[in-house]
Design brief:
With 207 residues, this protein is mostly beta strands. It contains no helices and 15 strands.
Length: 207
C-alpha cells in the first residue's frame, strides 16, 4: 500500500489475517504512523494491529477497543514495513475497516507559499509538537517575533474543525499545553493561523 492513501479491507473469518507491505524508497528521515479505524474511534469489530520491519521483527503493536494507532521510526534507506491486522479472540464482522499509513517528515512544517516565513516558526531547540502519538495533551513550541493573538486549530482528516484555542503569543519562544483528552482517537492536523501564514503539523491521538 502507499502512504497517505486510506484503503478499505476486511476480516472474513475468525482465522483470517490481513497483511500489507509499505516500501519507502531512497533516504528517509521520518516517522511512520499506521492508523486502523476511523477518526471517530470506530471499527467493525475488535481488531489488533501489528507492525514489523523488513526482517519480520515486531516493532510496534496496538490492541485497544477502539481505533488502533502505531508510530514507528522510519529513518534509513530503502525501508520496508509489514502490517498485520487480525481479529481479537476470533471475533469479526464481515464489514470493511479503514486503514491508512502516514509519513511525518522530520523537517520544518508546511507553510503557505505567500506567507512570510519568519513570522511564526518552529522552535529549533525543541520538537514543534509532542508527544506524538498523544493521549491527554500535546505541547506546542514555536517562536514569534511579536506579541499577538494566534488561533490554534485542530482539524480531522476530512478537514472538519474539531477544536479551536485562541492564545496570546509573546515575543520570542512560546510553549502551550493543549488538552486533547476530549478528542476521540484518530489522526488530526494541528494548525496555527496568524495573518496570511498557515503552519501545520499532523499528529495522532491514541489511547
Amino acid at each position: 500500500i502507499g502512504t497517505g492513501i486510506p484503503i478499505s479491507a476486511g476480516i472474513s473469518s475468525a482465522t483470517d489475517v490481513d497483511w500489507f507491505k509499505i516500501e519507502i524508497p531512497g533516504n528517509s528521515n521520518a516517522s511512520l504512523t499506521i492508523l486502523l479505524g476511523d477518526i471517530y474511534g470506530n471499527l467493525p469489530s475488535e481488531y489488533d494491529l501489528y507492525v514489523y520491519n523488513k526482517n519480520l521483527v515486531l516493532i510496534g503493536s496496538s490492541a485497544t477497543t477502539a481505533t488502533e494507532a502505531v508510530t514507528v521510526n522510519a529513518r534509513g534507506k530503502n525501508l520496508r514495513f509489514y502490517i498485520k491486522v487480525v481479529s481479537e479472540n476470533g471475533t469479526y464482522v464481515p464489514q470493511c475497516y479503514p486503514l491508512v499509513a502516514e509519513i511525518s517528515e522530520s523537517s520544518r512544517p508546511t507553510v503557505s507559499a505567500s506567507a512570510p516565513i519568519n513570522e511564526v516558526h518552529e522552535e529549533k531547540s525543541k520538537a514543534l509538537l509532542y508527544p506524538n502519538p498523544a493521549s491527554e495533551f500535546v505541547y506546542l513550541n514555536f517562536n514569534s517575533p511579536k506579541e499577538g493573538l494566534i488561533n490554534i486549530q485542530i482539524v480531522n482528516s476530512i478537514g472538519q474543525l474539531v477544536k479551536q484555542i485562541p492564545v496570546n503569543a509573546i515575543n520570542g519562544h512560546n510553549q502551550f499545553k493543549i488538552q486533547v483528552a476530549d478528542i476521540r482517537p484518530g489522526m488530526y492536523i494541528l494548525r496555527i493561523k496568524k495573518g496570511d501564514l498557515i503552519l501545520t503539523r499532523k499528529f495522532v491521538i491514541a489511547r
